[in-house]
Automatic annotation (TrEMBL):
It holds the Pfam family ThiS. InterPro entries: Beta-grasp_dom_sf, Mopterin_synth/thiamin_S_b, ThiS/MoaD-like. This is Molybdopterin synthase subunit MoaD. It comes from Rivibacter subsaxonicus. CDD domains: Ubl_MoaD (cd00754).
Amino acid sequence: MKIDLRYFASIREALGPGESFEAESGVLTLGVLRELLIARGGRHAEVLAHGRALRAAIDQQMVVDEATPIADGAEVAFFPPVTGG
């Protein structure tokens, strides 16, 4: 399963504009994806940590529930709760 990740604002400053992510086949949710990224350690663990306020969108639709499933080929964006622009 391949997912395109996009990062915005302070998350982009820490991790770059985005990356491709390959996950094993099966059910992948937003919460599981976040856990997998945190498990990478380093900047991913720091920026995406559970104690930090974070918003997400899947295919340009805001997501509130971390149990939301992610389909193969989806675009997932992470950004802080307030962004300027």
